[in-house]
Structure formats: structure tokens, C-alpha cells
Fold Kinase binding protein CGI-121.
Amino acid sequence: MDDIRCELYQARTDISEKVSFLQQVRAIAEKYGTHIILFDADRMAGEEHVRSALRHAWRSYSEGTPIANSFEMEALLYAAGTRQCLLAANYGIRTGENRLYVGICPPSGGARDELATVLQFVDEDWETIDPDKAKRLQEIFGITPEELAVVGRGRIQDLVLERVALLEVYR
């Protein structure tokens, strides 16, 4: 990443209980002195959306102006394009099957190896935004048909990234 040292992975997991799962992830992060951020891939407009959220969160923490009490929540706030922690939490894990982008900031091979005990790392193409995902992104980011008509349906990721950047303005 440009101004933040992070590694980004894709993973799948089935979560039966969110609190205990997050406790495991936090313990791994603490053990290796890193941050582990889990993004719901089904709510993200691809890898650049994740990277943008991480960059904005890093900048706000570096400048001493975060909204959230943790870097992890700050990244989820930017991913969601909102100041509301309850809404941003929807961009993290959920009970059941999860497809996740996993950010490890700063990189830690040890943390990644240990995460492999609770996640299955995968190498899949999650960049395609099919019509169902496009509709979901439109709804959650308030993207109007008029906006899409102006920029084109193929630019939905750009509109989502604009919403992420606008959080900085609305602080």
C-alpha cells in the first residue's frame, strides 16, 4: 500500500459465535504486534475499496484525528463511508459463512500463519461486480440510478470509493 504497510488476503470461514471469534483474532494480533482487520467481501467493491479504507484509517490515526477508538473500527467506518460504528460493524464479520478480505497492518507472517487456524486463505477472483452485488452496493451506498446513468454502470466501484473519501469531508 502507498502510505501504510499492510498485507491483504482473501479468506473464507464459518463463524458460529462472533465474540469468541473476534477474541481469537485480537489475541493473534496482540501476540504479533499488528492490527487484523476483517472486511465482509460481499459489502466491498473489490480490493481497491479495502485498500482505500485502510489508507484513510491510517491517515486519520497518523494525524491524531480518528473517529473510532481502534484502528480496526476506523477502517470499517471508512469502508462503510459512515461515522456510525453500528453501521460500520456490518462491514466486518457475521455469523455463518463469511468471505473476508483480511488486512494485516503492519505485515506479520506469524499472524498470517496463526490466522490460518481459524480462516481458510483463498485465491479467488472477487473483483467482478455482478448485477446482484451492484444492486446491493447501490442500496448500501445510496448510489442513485441517475448517478449511474451519468458515469456508467461499469463505474460503480468509483462511486463507492468516492463515498469512502467523502467521510473525510464530513468529519
Summary: The CA atoms of residues 44 and 50 lie 7 Å apart. The chain has one domain: 7-169. The radius of gyration is 16 Å.
